[in-house]
Hints:
This protein has helices at 5-13, 30-44, 67-74, 95-103, 123-130, 144-157, 164-173, 178-192, 200-207, 211-224, 227-239, 244-266, 271-276, 287-296, 299-318, 323-343; strands at 21-26, 54-58, 84-90, 110-115, 134-138, 161-162, 197-198. The protein is an alpha/beta fold. The strands form two sheets. It has a five-stranded parallel sheet with strand order 2-3-4-1-5, with helices on both faces.
Amino acid sequence: MKLVANRVEEYLRAPPSGQVCAALFYGPDAGLVRERADRLTAAICPDLKDPFRISDLAGSSLAGDPARLGDEVAAMSLTGGRRVVRLRDVGDAVTAVLTPLLRDARGDTVVAIEAGDLPARSSLRKLCESAANAVSIACYSDGPRDVAALVRDTFAAHRIAAAGDAVAYLVAHLGGDRLVTRSELEKLTLYAGDGGRIELADAIACVGDTTTLSVEELIYAVAEGDFARLEAIMQRCLQEGQSPIGLLRAALRHFQRLHLAAGRVAAGASPEEAMRATRPPIFFKLQDRFRAQIGNWPVRRLAAVLDALTRAELDGKRTVLPQETVVRDALLTIARAARRQNAA
């Protein structure tokens, strides 16, 4: 079964009991994949390090011993209680092993599966979406509302107040990976202390070195037609663990904001007014560059860029080419268009 977004929280709090079942967590946000798998496991066994009730298997370990998954699913806990088998870093290769386990289920073990950004044609996704005793849960990067909610909840738990521009900065610079976001927010709470306050300078000092800033620099290089910076920063982003599709979506978010701002200017607003209306707000150090981009990109060309980015994401999920190749080609094509705009 494909679990819709508004049912995910309920499922993680109270997974069904009485049968072997599998929960597939997949998507470009590896941190959210891990967090949700942890939450499902904790709902069954609060001690995530319990060796009797929790078994960890890497996908590579099944290549030479595919029967091991069945053995772990059939095993009984020596201390009683429901067991969880965690499968990490898997892909479609595990489908052939998982299919008979779901078909001939015995006992009540839960198999928590952590995968990457699987395309719609993935056999593992299709299995978990069609099996009665399995669920498929997509884990996409947090949007501005999700990040804002995480910021509010984290600070509220520590009775921390935050300036509006500090929250805006965090919303704009976090969200690429759920675990990274939580780690950065935890760092801020330790910095401020319980009952403290966070100003913009504090947010910049604590969060200014995250990989999200590298992603933002990459997208600005694309929009400004800077090939040299684009190649160098993209390579760094990939080395830091950013997914190619995640980079593509970051570009899509930037050009959507640029498209809305350019549309306001075309309707009679000044670039400053259009930029002030942008949400989340443009970080003050990037405002001059964003204002210049509004002037360099006509609305009709921005609409074409949005179409190209959407097509590139679809191609990245269904072509035989590596996603990195598809994404790099798409970003370079847009950068070439930006250079032509700058020269016009």
